[in-house]
Amino acid sequence: MDPASGSGSNDPNPDESPSEAPGAALPSRYEAQKRRDWNTFLQYLRNHKPPLTLARCSGAHVIEFLRYLDQFGKTKVHVPGCPHFGCPSPPGPCACPLKQAWGSLDALIGRLRAAYEESGGEPEANPFGARAVRIYLREVKDGQAKARGIPYEKKKRKRPTTVAEVESSGRGGGSAVATTSKTVPSMTRSQMDEKKMVLKTFLSLY
Ligand SMILES: [Zn+2]
């Protein structure tokens, strides 16, 4: 059994594909996983120092949780100094850390976000839906794409920027985002700043 020696064009890493089935197909399995994730998170809160309650939990805490989970990850993510950086199928081992694959984190956040609201949390206060978390996930996705040699531009699909997403900040400035003109800027200025901050946090992992 050696799937890695196949065509070479496929990514042999099973970690890569979000194994999460669409909720409709396997509801009970999804529910079970969601419950497990939720319990894990609650336990994380209980062990948190300084003490942290769900009510006081912010997007930053959620990001902290995701970073904590990296120690249990199984996806090799090459650091920029590694000779295998950007190489999809490295010829040998290296000492780069294992992390949680972006797809796993993304699916996890989706489940926790649902669990939070099912447990009575207000959607507006949902820390798993925080913009900082979304930006962090995007950073992880882009960073892993680069580190693992997945063509960056190709991978970045041109998906329609939802206006709700752009305007969710509710801050002032140009209220009407240029929705009708050719390209909707994928990021507002404040998002850029936040992104830089998150990137810094992310890079400090290395
Ligand atoms: Zn490496």
TrEMBL record:
InterPro entries the record matches: ALOG, ALOG_dom
GO cellular component: nucleus
Region (Disordered): 1-30, 149-191
Keywords in alphabetical order: Developmental protein, DNA-binding, Nucleus, Transcription, Transcription regulation
Major location (coarse): nucleus
Subcellular location: Nucleus
Pfam families: ALOG_dom
The keyword Transcription regulation belongs to this UniProt entry's keyword annotation: yes
Biased composition (Polar residues): 1-12, 177-190
An example molecular function term from Gene Ontology annotations: DNA binding
Top-level taxon in the UniProt lineage: Eukaryota
PANTHER family noted in UniProt: PROTEIN G1-LIKE2, PROTEIN LIGHT-DEPENDENT SHORT HYPOCOTYLS 6
Family indicated by similarity: Belongs to the plant homeotic and developmental regulators ALOG protein family.
Name this protein carries in UniProt: Protein LIGHT-DEPENDENT SHORT HYPOCOTYLS like
Organism of origin: Actinidia chinensis var. chinensis
